Amino acid sequence: MQQRTLLQPAYVLHARPYGDTSLLLEIFSLDHGRQGLVAKGARVRKRHNCPLQPFAPLLLSWSGRGELPTLTDCDRHGEAMGLRGDGLLCGFYINELMYRLTHRHDPHPELFKIYAATLVRLRDEVSQEPLLREFELRLLDSLGYGLILDHDVDSGGPVDADGRYTYIPDLGPRLGEVDGNVAVGVSGRTLHALQRCDWRDVDTLRESKRLLRTVLHYHLGGKPLNSRALFRTAAKPQ
Questions:
Q1: For the residues of 194-232, what is the DSSP string, one character each?
Q2: I need a labelling partner for 237 at 20 to 30 A (CA). Which of 8, 13, 131, 226 fits?
Q3: Domains of the chain in sequence order
Q4: pLDDT digit string, tens, across residues 151-179
Q5: Residue 59 DSSP SS3
């Protein structure tokens, strides 16, 4: 028996050619999480009511069994974000994080709201780097990989703002110097700032970036992100 899903709020994370005329989509939906879909004939004729492009809120319908059901309808669910310049690069970055770190058919309705709100902020805000750090934190937390920021994992005591810690991605912060290839040094002051999402201090923001990049690299299995090459080409921070 075929399963049908109707008018599901969703965003396209990634699209690539499939066969001679179709597209293979990876979407992120409100109730079904990440989902693969085949958009038949989408490359040669307009079969749907909206363009199947990233950063646009859509209502998607699909039917079929297995890993790749067929897209049956698409409607706009608001205006496309119209990301440009730095905002567009950041959009590609967060889409790749979503694509690489989420699992198919694993619903994350709260993460869907976070993602949608982040796209709006990318469109409207000038300073993207604090926004990326906040998204990375909330993404990790939503997926069960949330950072431990308030206590030393060895002693159980509160993080000292004046202390220097080693952060181990699958464990947390411990007082002392960095040991091991996957660990990164971080100040207690930065750990406090991360708890508050306080990005006012330049040094704290820089150290937060290094910490989050290390943790993300660990959960990505050490595989590089393709979107980072775009930032390097454009010489922009991510």
A1: HHHT---SHHHHHHHHHHHHHHHHHHTTTPPPHHHHHHH
A2: 13
A3: 3-76 (2.40.50.140), 85-234 (1.20.1440.120)
A4: 999 999 999 999 999 999 999 999 998 76
A5: strand
Dist CA 23 CA 52 (whole Å): 9
To the nearest 10°, the Cα dihedral for 7, 13, 14, 20?
10
CA dihedral (12, 77, 117, 67) positive or negative: negative
Interatomic CA distance for residues 129 and 133, integer angstroms: 6
CA–CA separation, 105 and 28 (whole Å): 9
Give per-residue burial for 194-222: e unless 16+ CB within 10 Å, then b: beeeebeeeebbebbbebbebbbbbbeee
What number of other Cβ atoms are within 10 A of residue 113's Cβ? 12
pLDDT tens readout for residues 89-106 = 999 999 999 999 999 999
